[in-house]
Amino acid sequence: MIIHKPALITAILLTTLFTGCFDDNSDNSNGIAGNSSENEPWVQINYPAQWGTVSGIEEVRVEAGPGGEVDQVTLFVDGLVLSDDSQPPYFFAWDINGLSGSHTILARAYTGADSVDSGLLTVSVSEIPDPAPVITSPSNLSTVDNTVTVIAEETQSADIDSLVLYIDGLRFDVNDSAPYQFVWTVPEGNGSHTLFVRSWEGDQSGTSPLVTVFTEDGIDTELPYVQITSPPDWANVQGEIEVITEAYDNVGIDMVTLLLDGLEHETISAAPYRFQLDTDLLTDGNHTLICKAYDLSGNFNISNMVTFVIEQ
Q1: Which CATH number applies to 225-310?
Q2: How do 133-137 and 211-215 pair as beta strands?
């Protein structure tokens, strides 16, 4: 028994020593665990609020940290990427026009290889935006250069708190009193720019229609694209058929006209560009189809020619 006591005492001492060194609950004086927790990325959506209502073009406001360490913040709407922002403040322009019902918003912040998600917000679309601002100058599709004064006004509410100007989707400046004017130095080079304003009255907001302007050396000269995709060339047809046309443009399509045997048959001013044609009213034999597309700048282009055959 005497022989085993030193071994037992040694085992107890070693157990106590190693337990003190590796006990997770022991005091960690170097603070590594605490600093690691403090340096973890975080992100939150400050606006809109959970279960709030949205309309027009909303400004989604996101805050993320730690300060100076966030590489990028990505905003997701209904699970799809809406936009990225790498510089605070993290503001995202979300165009809600044409949407309805409920939608989800989530922000994700990246710091190096780490990332973190905000809480998932659910918002509902309001069909009546309030208030309702407009840009009165410059006019839509106008040409600008040098320094431009952007003038806006509120048409529905006389008590708005502020009015924010966005250029190319980015927050440019804010004005909290009338007259609502913003001085903008127009970038040099070819191209177009989009402008809109957003006014705030408490938690209610409204967005103006988009205004597209061109730089002096960036007047839109790009022709629209237009193509007849159905019927196929040299198809044998009878009865009523549908002529399906694709058309798009860098600025926007104004209208598409269908030419039957070189004469105007019908014009459509909004997509989808589908024309109904009753071939029973035509003579037997060959007939031709061509579509002519006009963009918002007045440029036009013609499609491929399609020949179809009527055999009664």
Answers
A1: 2.60.40.10
A2: unpaired
Which comes out higher in pLDDT, residue 204 or 124?
124
Q: What is the CATH number of domain 39-125?
A: 2.60.40.10
Which secondary-structure segment (H or E) carries 162?
Answer: strand 162-167
* Confidence (pTM): 0.38
Mean pLDDT in residue range 266-274: 93
| Separation between Cα atoms, residue 265 and residue 96, nearest integer Å | 35
**Domain range 133-215, CATH architecture:** Sandwich (2.60)
Q: How far apart are CA 302 and CA 14, in angstroms?
A: 90
Cβ neighbours of residue 268 closer than 8 Å, sequence gap 6 or more: 255, 256, 258, 274, 275
Q: How far apart are CA 234 and CA 249, in angstroms?
A: 28
Whether the CB-CB separation of 54 and 61 falls below 8 Å is answered with no
